[in-house]
Amino acid sequence: MAEQNKSALVHYRVELKNLAAHLLEVTCTIPDPTRHGQIVALPAWIPGSYMVRDFAKNIVTISASCGGETVHLEKLDKQTWQAFPCLGPLTITCEIYAWDLSVRSAHVDTTHAYFNGTSVFLQVRGREHEACYVEIVRPAGEQYRNWQLATTLAPVEALALGFGVFKADDYQDLIDHPVEMGEFSIARFDACGVPHEVVVTGRHNADMARLARDLPTICEHHIRFFGEPAPMARYQFQVLAVGDGYGGLEHRSSTSLLCSREDLPQPHQTDVTDEYRNFLGLCSHEYFHAWMVKRIKPAVFMTYDLAKEVYTRQLWAFEGITSYYDELALVRTGLINEQSYLELLGQTITRVLRSKGRFKQSVTDSSFDAWTKFYKQDENATNAIISYYVKGALVALGLDLKIRATTAGAKSLDDVMRALWQRYGLRNYGLPERGFEQVAEEISGLDLKAYFAEALYGTADIPLRELLKPFGIDYLERIASSQTDKGGKPPAANGKPAAVSLHIKTGRGEGGVSVSNVYHGGSAQIAGIAAGDLLVAIDGLKLSQDNLEKRLARYRVGDTVRVHAFRRDELMEFAVRLQAPEYDTCYLVINDETPVSRDLRAKWLQTA
Ligand code: ZN
Fold this sequence. Notes:
Strand content: 25-35%
Mean pLDDT: 96
Bound molecules: zinc ion
């Protein structure tokens, strides 16, 4: 767009006047509002998190003024207002409550302040495609003197990591740069010539120098995967370390991450612990998204309709393929070894095996219904739905293995991804529904219709046992050793799996065992036990979360036990006929290999 007179542009101002009350004051000034009464609205959802969150519910007060006079604001629906006609400039002031500790919304207290634009910036109807200014004001008071500000919004009058004035190209750009304020730990590095920052907030003891050594490896890998130059001029990892938490949200030039402080590398620690491997995987995932979903996008996401749900059947590709590559990048860069990677794959397969919902819902249906099913899971989710993340990752794995084995390593999913980037991401074209399938067939030169029909639109398992064989990898299944067994590892040498199972997921309950999920078709469900029940005794003996496995160890398949439980405040008795536990835990083992399988595997994992 042509350069505009600054005074003609919409101007936002964010002030932190009452952090203790978790309040942000945000004004939006429109120099020349429409003559018919300016309409403004707050989004209902944030791109990357497919659930209607109704951010406008956090607006505590809203008012409008023009030239010092109050202007009447008419509320049109849950998130839209219209100002009475005025000559302008029209200023709308919102007081916004910010107390959601997540990467999706806003969170403000006296220790830090964080917000996404979707939670605070009113969309000015008719002006969405124009540039705008944002002024963010340092909170008053001695305790905020050392606060810094992290964002990838373009600074206009602001020093690096400073408060001041920023500019956005349009509304979509405005809401794609989360802002974190507080006292930070900072690591800096370059990846393929692009400056990167890691900004950590929250109490932690992270080895920042290690992050500055390990993260460039991942970033450079992804940049070179799609091809230099990198599509962003700078990049920022915004990390909030907490006691227990996990999450990330992708943006075009940054990501917001929420993690446990234990996931960050500790000083003097040199190996990659399981926790740190999680954190590296999270960083890798969100960074890959800078291409896949932020630039290669479903056609329906090219201009987001933020007022309501936007449906696509392709989330499996955008989240599943990203999940596949986030971990693959860790082994390809040498941050983890082949064994560690196969353990992660085994865990992903295990998560799918434990979802009975995979027989009920395809990944394309899971994508479409993300808004009401995946993002609104209840106690029956495990029986009714399949995650388009984990099943999507297995669809990607199966496809990659299939293309590699069939073309003797000449082609792979990597080629498909690069073609998607060249044709769609780089040219800013939206990927039409089923577009991925077309590109995959064309680039691989294979007829993949049967594979996609089953993997994307059907509910049968991906035939990974067969697909892994040419790569010298055996696919094995076993019984879980405990409720905390995530899979990926062979059975423990000294462990003996349980002989019977109630087929429920449980937790510690007050005076017994609390049932969180009841698996479809299992012994507990057949007997009538329900999620929410408190199991108190089995054959007259008191039950607890700690003795449950021991109590069950006395029985064999086919035995019937008497289980007492409270449902609400009513004592109930169930006769449970015990079944065998399921072989729902997967691990992968490298077998005696041939030069062909060794070569295929080395090319796939890039371990040669
Ligand atoms: Zn993702």
